[in-house]
Amino acid sequence: MTFRKTISSDIAQCSTSSHGAATDVLALSQSDVAVLAETFRLLGDQSRLKILLHCMRGSVAVGDIADSLDLSQSLVSHHLRLLRGARLVRGERQSKHIFYGIADQHVSQVLQDMASHISEDRSDD
Question: Which residues contact 89 (CB under 8 A, 6 or more apart)?
């Protein structure tokens, strides 16, 4: 029980220390947890993750993403539709083309934090 309380307090401390008045992750509703799990499920696909990382560079057209990642335009469009539905990317129409970018700073920060996390020195393992 002490271990669980320690972990819970560490999580609560982490959620508020680096992001100011962050949402209390321990108080998420069942619905919020389901949305969060679905978001991470979407990010679990390598193609979608590559597309999202590509969108971090700035607004980019579907064709450019497809060419850069060697994927078909229809597959990229499908993935972008899912990512847009999860509010991870936003699209902006310019004449006949839609340019996609990261939806907001939160999405960008999560990706940057996780990239930093996997790059950390693994000597504590």
Answer: 51, 52, 55, 80, 83, 100, 101, 102, 103, 107
Query: What is residue 10's predicted lDDT score, i.e. its pLDDT?
Result: 43
CATH of 30-118, one of 1.10.10.10, 1.20.1270.10, 3.10.580.10, 3.40.50.720: 1.10.10.10
What ranges make up the beta strands (E) of the chain?
A: 60-61, 89-94, 97-102
pLDDT along the chain (125 residues), means of 10: 39 45 77 94 96 95 96 97 96 93 95 93 65
pTM (predicted TM-score) = 0.76
Amino acid 106: pLDDT: 94
**CA–CA gap between residue 80 and residue 90 (Å, rounded):** 9
DSSP-derived letter for residue 123 is: G
pLDDT at residue 123, rounded to an integer: 60
- Tell me how many helices (H) and strands (E) the chain has: 6, 3
Q: Which amino acid is at 124?
A: D
